[in-house]
Amino acid sequence: MHQEEATPAACAVHCADCAVRRLCLPMELGTADVDKLDHIVGRRFPLAQGELLYRTGSPFASLYAVREGQFKAYRVNRDGSEQVTGFHFSGQLLGLDAIGSGVHSCEVVALQDCSVCELPFADLEALLAKMPALRQQFHRMVGEEIARMQSVVLLLGKMKARQRLATLIVRAASVYEARGYSIEKFQLRMTHEDLSNYLGMTRECVSRQLTKFKQEGLVKVAPRELEVLDLAAIKTIAAGKAP
Amino acid sequence: MHQEEATPAACAVHCADCAVRRLCLPMELGTADVDKLDHIVGRRFPLAQGELLYRTGSPFASLYAVREGQFKAYRVNRDGSEQVTGFHFSGQLLGLDAIGSGVHSCEVVALQDCSVCELPFADLEALLAKMPALRQQFHRMVGEEIARMQSVVLLLGKMKARQRLATLIVRAASVYEARGYSIEKFQLRMTHEDLSNYLGMTRECVSRQLTKFKQEGLVKVAPRELEVLDLAAIKTIAAGKAP
DNA sequence: CGGGTTCTTGACACGGCTCAAGCGTAGTGG
DNA sequence: CCACTACGCTTGAGCCGTGTCAAGAACCCG
Fold first, then answer.
1. Residues 6 or more apart from B190 whose CB is under 8 A from it?
2. CA of B102: which chain A residue's CA is closest?
3. Quick one: CATH architecture of B160-238?
4. Predicted confidence band at B13 (pLDDT cuts at 50, 70, 90)?
5. Mean pLDDT across chain A
6. Residues 146-205 of B with CB under 7 A from strand C
7. What is the pLDDT of residues A44-68, one digit of tens each?
């Protein structure tokens, strides 16, 4: 096993003891299977805020599982502009965009101090061949990624600004809920710039919509933090059933 | 082997002789491997225009490879509205949206008379375990699906109407080119309704943009058919380098 | 404390949506 | 063969939502 020294205690955690194993590849695997998976995990390492996990064009060698923190994934256009394709949280798998082509088609950056587990794809491949249960979990995560992208397409294709922001808040709440955090009050590490980019609108528009939500008493906004006062109402807006 | 009778001659074609094997799962597989894959193919059957391949909520059992024709995939919202998530052509794999959840999250309909090959997922799974080369091809196709979705997100998130339509034309041209058809003149089986839905705009807007292209001498439009007169110019527009 | 980023707010313009009417083509039945 | 209908496409007018531009406030970090 290749473990790094000189890393915080958290980095020594094995899959079996990991806080997010239920959200990650181990998911429903038995103890023996989790151990096998644990053995192929390469480095478990921290990333400081702003550091890149991988960049566009770099060759694909590993998938990465987020242990702690938040990441932003984005594509870089030829003209230099960015399109944020998603935000990723603990338990999620990063790098799936490259398993087809062998080259990363997007770039991933840490939005805060994070830690990740590296899964050398060749080793994972070999394990997938032997372990049907792991294969199933892997397919599940791939499927979730596709479904997630589809819902982004839906958001960008059909919704107005207000509904988009409401949808984002609802999803963020459910992400935090799944990870055992408060639904009422959570961190939004991304800037309005990133948020607006992801939502297909401008910074100003995000700000204005958020201000409206504030005025209507649906949320309270603190720097990098959001307090949800009326989740039900926001869900209604997200569903398109209320203006 | 389970083959259907009572179907056109085309439906009897095996993977080894299939016109689109280079675009489909067999891709770079050796003859022996292709044969193994061919053996698990369930029914190879035709679908008439307007028929559904699968519907939202139906349980996932098989993937489908498109042999001939064009399909439209779309999500149905709770309020009954649709979001077209993509158009699919020969050689592409349908049903990947469900491998995670076991339930189809979108609906697929034939835009013309089509034929498809059914791949029972349980059988494919078993084969994936044994054949590293097939696994690689499968991952490639999954990766392509993710990359495709990402590019749709980019289109919806960053482009104006004119650029979106140009992008669609360029992609359609490359799809037809890969399949050995003319790049200059090809069928667009989808209605403006579907097109606009996919592109995140309205019917009227598609029509107007198309009219502009016509006036500028970039395309000629016949019913359900598009003749590209100046692909280079359209590519420039799609790249965002010209108004 | 200063300098850079990030956020807010306003005024204005414009792209695309909405609504509405008219046109062309294909299919159907007398 | 010609109404008649249905459907998809086109075109116009007007309006609304967002983008754009600009200035200032708030915040963060060294």
1. B70, B72, B87, B111, B198
2. A140
3. Orthogonal Bundle (1.10)
4. confident
5. 91
6. 160-162, 200-202, 204-205
7. 999 999 999 999 999 999 999 999 9
